[in-house]
Amino acid sequence: MNIGQAAAASGVSAKMIRHYETLGLVKPVRRPNGYRAYTEQHVGILRFIRHARELAFPLAEVKRLLGLWQDQSRASADVRRIAMEHVAALDAKAESIRAVAESLRHLADHCQGNERPDCPILETLEGGPAPKERVKDHA
User: Fold this and answer.
1) In this structure, is the dihedral angle defined by the CA atoms of residues 52, 57, 60 and 64, taken in order, positive or negative?
2) What is the pTM of this model?
3) Which fold has domain 1-56?
4) What stretch of H or E contains 116?
């Protein structure tokens, strides 16, 4: 099949298929006229890559997983380790995003949102200090 047919069958765009080829993730057969030729096996590899990318695996990890998938003597412990390392990375990224969201929420809470030009959000982006938390008196 040609690249358009492989794209339709795998759910991966022709542009991404070419990119994956340059990375060595998929290696189509070259016809005498120079066109790429794909088999069902290539489509399976492309689907594997698409699913791994949907799970946000970086391309380096996709390559490792693809190698393990193709190695019938693999240990599932190796696959699990890669998956759990990815989970830890995703958790760290999620925590970082939550912290950024909380910082922005804090700035927005201190912005009057009125007709005046004073804006702690812009002042902080400019490099000024972030607004202080209000301390409640418990006396």
Assistant:
1) negative
2) 0.78
3) Multidrug-efflux Transporter Regulator; Chain: A; Domain 2 (1.10.1660)
4) none
